[in-house]
Amino acid sequence: MNRKEQQLQELIAPTVDALGCELWGIEYVAQGRRSLLRIFIERPDGVSVEDCERVSRQVSGLLDVEDPIKTNYRLEVSSPGFDRLLFRPDQYLRYLGETLDVRLNFPYEGRRKFVGQLVGLEDNEVVLRIEDEEYLLPLENVQRARIVPTFE
After folding, report:
1. In the β-sheet with 142-147, what is the strand arrangement from edge to edge?
2. Which residues contact 14 (CB under 8 A, 6 or more apart)?
3. In angstroms, rounded to a whole number, what is the distance separating the alpha carbons of residues 43 and 142?
């Protein structure tokens, strides 16, 4: 998470919590003159369109007052979905045993993409099993980690 995303998360989290949702994560993408702020929210009983609308309305008002983004931006609020991104270490622990698609900032053993079973989190490293091998991928090198949904 970059500094801007951290600042936005600290600003937005209390509002999202007050609306009965969990702030799952934030993506902020500066795209020239028009940036994108994507907020993912979660609820134990699932996220509805109404939840997204309420959070969007309240967060939009908060951002208008606080003005942390100086350029034009588009605000999106949604559920993390089945193929959810993982943003924090505690989220990895919720999905032990699941298949992850992990993209790294810098190559590890000549690769930047790993798809395997999440078997743990040790000393700020994601433990991923691919076939019969385990890989320890440092969290600070993880660009993006996404759950690979399985439908049976």
Report:
1. 133-138, 125-130, 111-122, 99-108, 142-147
2. none
3. 25
- Taking residues 101-105, what's their average pLDDT? 97
Average pLDDT, whole number, for the chain? Answer: 95
Fold of 3-78: GMP Synthetase; Chain A, domain 3 (3.30.300)
- Third-level CATH fold of 89-147: SH3 type barrels. (2.30.30)
Instruction: Check whether 2 has a pLDDT greater than 90.
Output: no
Q: Is residue 10 scored above 80 in pLDDT?
A: yes
Given a cut of 90, is residue 16 above it in pLDDT?
A: yes
Q: What distance in Å separates the CA atoms of residue 124 and residue 113, rounded to the nearest whole number? A: 18
Q: Where are the domains of the chain?
A: 3-78, 89-147
